[in-house]
Amino acid sequence: MITTDQTLTQATQLLQIEDEHVAHNYHPLDVVITSGSGAVLSDGDGAQYLDFLSAYSAANFGHCHPALVAAAIEQLKRLTLTSRAFHHDQLAPFAEGLARLIGKDMVLPMNSGAEAVESAIKVARKWGYEVKGVPDGRAVIIVAAGNFHGRTTTIISFSDDPLAHDHYGPYTPGFVSVPYGDLEALRNAITDDVVAVLLEPIQGESGVRIPPAGYLAGVRELTSQHRALFVADEIQSGLGRTGRTLALQHENVTADVYLLGKALGGGIVPLSGVVADHDVLGVLKPGQHGSTFGGNALACAIGRAVVSLLESGYFQERAARLGVNLRDRLDGMLGRGVVAFRSRGLWAGVDVDPRLGSGRDVCEALARRHVLAKDTHGSTIRLAPPLVISEAELDHGLDQLELALADLS
Ligand SMILES: *Cc1c(COP(=O)(O)O)cnc(C)c1O
Question: What is the CATH number of the domain that holds 296?
Answer without folding.
Answer: 3.40.640.10
